[in-house]
Structure formats: structure tokens, C-alpha cells
Design a protein that fits this description.
By secondary structure, this protein is an alpha/beta fold. 37% of the residues lie in helices and 20% in strands. Strand 4, helix 5 and strand 5 form a beta-alpha-beta unit. It is globular and about 80 Å long. The chain binds 6-O-phosphono-beta-D-glucopyranose. 6-O-phosphono-beta-D-glucopyranose binds next to loops.
Length: 483
């Protein structure tokens, strides 16, 4: 029988995301028969106490999917053991609980413990040839520390057994982007520098750092979001068509993109990057404190970053990829915008200006939607033809008018299911993570060398105005929230 061990099983990630996701998988009949789910954490509590905590967490998230029957089935799988995960001795009783069969261990703990935990797991027999380990990001805070941790991981597990999570890859719309690009013939011929003017990737959040600052202050927006989620999105937009969806086929293409990213030199950092940090302001009508106030003292950590990335290959030469992410922005909004070029010549009165260039917007949050804006004739008998832009949604629902849209899934549902089935297509390979760190390290080195300090922005705004200048200098503007 297989087992899933959640190290850090009582922590925030497990309670907010992992256990509710597993409940939903149970609800949909997708969990493998006989799978045991074992919470493993430091706190001394009984399995019954743990199950009660899980129930409260799951019930709060289940909405319409709550069912006592499903819960009973789910609760029957749950178990708990208090462990010191860094000690092989302490993990031995866990190995007994796991028993024979594949064991998938999810490390939902501080990455600073990963190396010691995997070493202890190996000694305790929890890293056998069929076992797997799932690592939450961020692994390390730069290339060097990533390698240190990953070396310990690869002493215990082979690369095929390691599942490095980037939860953005589990989001439905991200997978839809793959379907859109490679399941249709219409987009791929246009997907290049001849037709695309630029690409924008925005991940805006209204939340602040709050009490996560001890972690966040060490990482900042560059390492917390750009190194992983945003570069992964960039890879999926920019990669060449893989020959199939096998894990290595997709990951080979992604890593080529990362290798083609132009390095950001200290001389250029000022021109192509923006660092920001929020100060007190107002979000959704509520006053909110600044980052320094939350942290209790001044800090040079950025809570906003915007970067112009260039991909030096044939497909993307001359097409900038603008990325920005920040805390305490006015909206929780994640989108990828593929901005096509303008028509070369307008036959309509008023010239090219009346025609808005086509735009493909892949929205991950707040709504999941893919839409294409095209120009259309405004209905009527005007003497001169009047044009208007219209938005065509390419998402689920257009075909099934009146049908209830599928439940919005937690990204971890897909990823937990894939890890349990041993499918690593949507996980990050070691060389990908290394390349991403390499590029990000150059950005942070450039900031350090140029003494680039974060620019203040008021909470509730779209970051420092320099982020608008980043595009304005090239005659472009952000799709949302430009100054
Ligand atoms: C996490 C970051 O990886 O992603 C957080 O550590 C961030 O800082 C979160 O808030 C955003 O995820 P999502 O799915 O809400 O966009």
C-alpha cells in the first residue's frame, strides 16, 4: 500500500493547501486505493487531535464539495506521528507506519531543513528506489545554496524521484496555455518576433508580507516570485514545441529558454529592472502599514520587482518580455499578455491609430480566462466604416452555454495527483532550477554592485512609477495599472 507523508503536516501550507487538495481528490475519487496520508511534525499530539484539526481546515475550504461520507473515507486514511524529521532514529517509527509500498514524502517545512531531513530519511529507509520526495520552493536562496541542498537530496534520491514543486504549473490556465499553443494550428505560426511585439507577465497581490517577514526579508520578490513562478510562465510562453508531453521533452525545451535569457549586467540593471518596497497606503478602502512597519525596522528587501527580459534566440530576437510582481498592489491579478504587432498599413479612415493591435490575454487570477481582442465593425450604416475592439473568450464555457463551470481547483490538486502517480512533467528539473538561479543571481549581484535600493511605492498602487517608465521608454505600456 502506498503512503503520502506530509512533513510539516500541521503547518500553514499543509492546512491551507495540501490537505484541502487531498480532500478534493478524495471527493472526485482520484486518490489511489489504500493510500495512507500521514502527517509528521514536531508537535506532540494524537492522531485523533490531528484529524480534528484537519477537519476544521478542510471544512473551511470545501464549500459545496463538503460531504460527511467523503470526509469519513478521507479521515480513515489519515494518521499522525510526532517526529524530529532531522533525526533518523526519530523517523524509524514513521517508516514502520508507512510499511511496504511507495512512499511519497512532501517536505512542507523550511527549506533550510531539507538537506538534514533527506539525509535522515535515507538512513531511516524512507528513500528506497520506489520512493519519491516533493520539495516546496524556494530551494536555496541563490545558486550556491540551491546546489548545497540539492546535492544532499541527490545523495538520497535519483533525479526521477525528486519532484520540485512550482505551484503555478498546477494552475488550470497554465496548462491551458500549453493546450492553446500546441493543440491548435492558428497560433503557432504567429508565435514569434515577426508578429509579436512584446509579452507582459504580471503577478499582482493585494496581500502584504505581514508576519511572513522573517522568511520574506531574506528572499524578496526577486527570489520569492520571479526566480520560480514568473520564469516558469515565461518558459511556457517562449519554449519551442516539445515532441510530446513526456517530462523530459517539456523540461528540455524550458531549460533552453532559460539558457537563452540575456544576462543583466550591473551597467544595465538600472535600465532594465525596477526594485520597489511598499510604504503605508490604502487597499480596498482599508489603511495598511508599510513593509518597514510590519518588519519593525528599515529593510532593503524589495516587495516589488519589474524586469525586462530578452531571450536571445531566433524566435524571440527583439521581443522584450516584461515581468512585474508585487505585494500590496491594488488587485490580485495574474496575467500573461501576448501583444501582437500593429497592422502594417491601415485602409480605414483615421490611420493605424484607430486599430488596436491584437492582444491575447491569459488570465490566471482573479478569473481563469483566455481572451483574444480583435477589431470588429461597429454595426450600423455609418458612411465610413467604424471599428471597435471586441474580446473573444477562448476558455471553457463557450461551447457549453448554461452548463455549470467546473469547480476552480487548487493548483496543488493537480500536482499532488501527478506526484502520487510519478508524473514529473509539471515539476522543475534540477538544471532548470539552476539556470533560473543563475539568471536571478546576476540580477541581485547587479543590484548589489550598483547599490540599487528599493524605490518606495504607496500600498494600493501598481508599484513605483519607474515600472511604467520601463515600458514607456520603449513606447509601450502595461495592460493594467499603468501610471
Ligand atoms: C508563493 C509565494 O509561492 O506564491 C507567496 O511564496 C505568494 O509570497 C504566493 O503570495 C502567490 O500564489 P498565488 O497562487 O496566490 O498567486
Amino acid at each position: 500500500m502506498a503512503a503520502l507523508v506530509l512533513f510539516g503536516g500541521g503547518g500553514d501550507l499543509a492546512m491551507r493547501m495540501l490537505l484541502p487538495s487531498l480532500y478534493f481528490l478524495e471527493h472526485d475519487g482520484l486518490l489511489p486505493d489504500g493510500l495512507k496520508i500521514i502527517g509528521a511534525a514536531r508537535s506532540e499530539e494524537t492522531p485523533a487531535e490531528y484529524v480534528a484539526k484537519v477537519r476544521a481546515a478542510v471544512e473551511g475550504k470545501a464549500d459545496g464539495a463538503w460531504s460527511d461520507d467523503v470526509w469519513e473515507r478521507f479521515a480513515a486514511r489519515l494518521d499522525y506521528l510526532a517526529v524530529d524529521a532531522t533525526s533518523a532514529e526519530s523517523l524509524k517509527p514513521l517508516k514502520d507506519k508507512v510499511g511496504p509500498g511507495t512512499c511519497t514524502s512532501f517536505l512542507a517545512v523550511s527549506p533550510s531543513l531539507y538537506a538534514r531531513i533527506v539525509t535522515a530519511m535515507r538512513a531511516a529507509g524512507l528513500a528506497e528506489a520506489d520512493d519519491r520526495v516533493v520539495l516546496e520552493k524556494p530551494v536555496g536562496r541563490d545558486l550556491e545554496s540551491f546546489r548545497e541542498i540539492d546535492d544532499a537530496v541527490s545523495d538520497a534520491f535519483s533525479e526521477q524521484q525528486v519532484f520540485r514543486i512550482d505551484h503555478y504549473l498546477g494552475k488550470e490556465t497554465v496548462q491551458n496555455l500549453i493546450a492553446l499553443r500546441f493543440g491548435n494550428t492558428v497560433f503557432e505560426p504567429l508565435w514569434n518576433s515577426q508578429n509579436i511585439d512584446h509579452v507582459q507577465i504580471t503577478v499582482g497581490e493585494t496581500v502584504g508580507v505581514g508576519d511572513r517577514w522573517p522568511y520574506y526579508d531574506e528572499y524578496g520578490a526577486l527570489r520569492d516570485m520571479l526566480q520560480n513562478h514568473m520564469l516558469q510562465l515565461l518558459c511556457l510562453v517562449a519554449m519551442e514545441p516539445p515532441s510530446d508531453l513526456e517530462p523530459d521533452s517539456v523540461r528540455n525545451e524550458k531549460v533552453k529558454v532559460l539558457r537563452s535569457l540575456r544576462r543583466i549586467t550591473p551597467e544595465e540593471a538600472d535600465r532594465v529592472t525596477v526594485r520597489g518596497q511598499y510604504v503605508a497606503g490604502t487597499i480596498e478602502g482599508r489603511p495598511v502599514p508599510g513593509y518597514d512597519q510590519e518588519r519593525g525596522q528599515p529593510s532593503d528587501t524589495e516587495t516589488f520587482v519589474a524586469v525586462r527580459a530578452d531571450i536571445d534566440n531566433w524566435r524571440w530576437a527583439g521581443v522584450p518580455f516584461f515581468m512585474r510582481t508585487g505585494k500590496r498592489l491594488p488587485e490580485k491579478r495574474t496575467e500573461i499578455v501576448i501583444q501582437f504587432k500593429e497592422v502594417p498599413h491601415s485602409i480605414f479612415d483615421g490611420g493605424r491609430g484607430v486599430i488596436q493591435a491584437n492582444k491575447l490575454v491569459i488570465e490566471l487570477q482573479p478569473d481563469e480566462d483566455i481572451s483574444l481582442s480583435v477589431m470588429n465593425k461597429r454595426p450600423g450604416l455609418d458612411q465610413k466604416m467604424q471599428l471597435q475592439p471586441i474580446r473573444m473568450s477562448l476558455s471553457w464555457g463557450q461551447e457549453d452555454k448554461g452548463a455549470k463551470p467546473p469547480r476552480r481547483r487548487i493548483a496543488y490538486e493537480r500536482l499532488l495527483l501527478d506526484a502520487l502517480n510519478g508524473d514529473s512533467t509539471l515539476f522543475v528539473r534540477r538544471d532548470e532550477a539552476e539556470q533560473a538561479w543563475k539568471w536571478v543571481d546576476e540580477v541581485s549581484d547587479a543590484w548589489a554592485e550598483g547599490q540599487v535600493k528599493p524605490i518606495e511605492y504607496e500600498a494600493g498602487t501598481w508599484g513605483p512609477k519607474e515600472a511604467s517608465y520601463l515600458l514607456a521608454r520603449t513606447g509601450r505600456s502595461w495592460n493594467v495599472g499603468d501610471a
